[in-house]
């Protein structure tokens, strides 16, 4: 899975739990810190305190668990590695970017149909309503008599067109 935050460099993680750990360590403004009750060791993960107690302080698993139980909650601190997600959300488990795209398209299609428009998806670049048509070369023509390229997205300006160049479209 990929981190959706561009400031992270769109890092890829092979497993969802790795992405979740990255998100918790990087994109949450505040984080819980867990401390070893015997020394100054601090970590963001409770299980690492248990492992630390077993390896550094030579405690048994049972002793480590009882020591951690005494200090159950972590202290909330400002995250020093915080990178703002910029409006992005943590991806949900099992929801691929393709599934999200299809869900958004279905919602938009339902909305247009409710408004009385029949929608058509043109190569994932433009939604065409019933008062527009697309020529085979990707030009969109609507009732306002202007053309735009389907790949231009939302950045286009209306242009006057000489319809005599298109005999099938003359009126």
Element layout with pairings:
Elements (H helix, E strand, L loop, with lengths): L15 H11 L3 E6 L6 E2 L2 H11 L4 H10 L4 E4 L18 H18 L5 E3 L3 E3 L3 E3 L4 E4 L4 E3 L22
Helix pairs in contact: 2-3
Characterization of this structure:
This is C2H2-type domain-containing protein. With 171 residues, the protein is of the alpha+beta class. It has a domain at 6-78. Helix content is 29%, strand content 16%. It contains four helices and eight strands. The chain has helices spanning 16-26, 46-56, 61-70, 97-114; strands at residues 30-35, 42-43, 75-78, 120-122, 126-128, 132-134, 139-142, 147-149. The strands form three sheets. The chain has a three-stranded antiparallel sheet with strand order 2-1-3, covered by helices on one side. It has a three-stranded antiparallel sheet with strand order 6-7-8, with no helix packed on it. Strands 4-5 form a two-stranded antiparallel ribbon. A hairpin with a 4-residue loop joins β7 (139-142) and β8 (147-149). α2 crosses α3. It is elongated and about 90 Å long. The relative contact order is 0.10.
Structure at a glance:
This is C2H2-type domain-containing protein. The protein is of the alpha+beta class.
What distinguishing features does this structure have?
3-stranded antiparallel beta sheet; 171 residues; alpha+beta
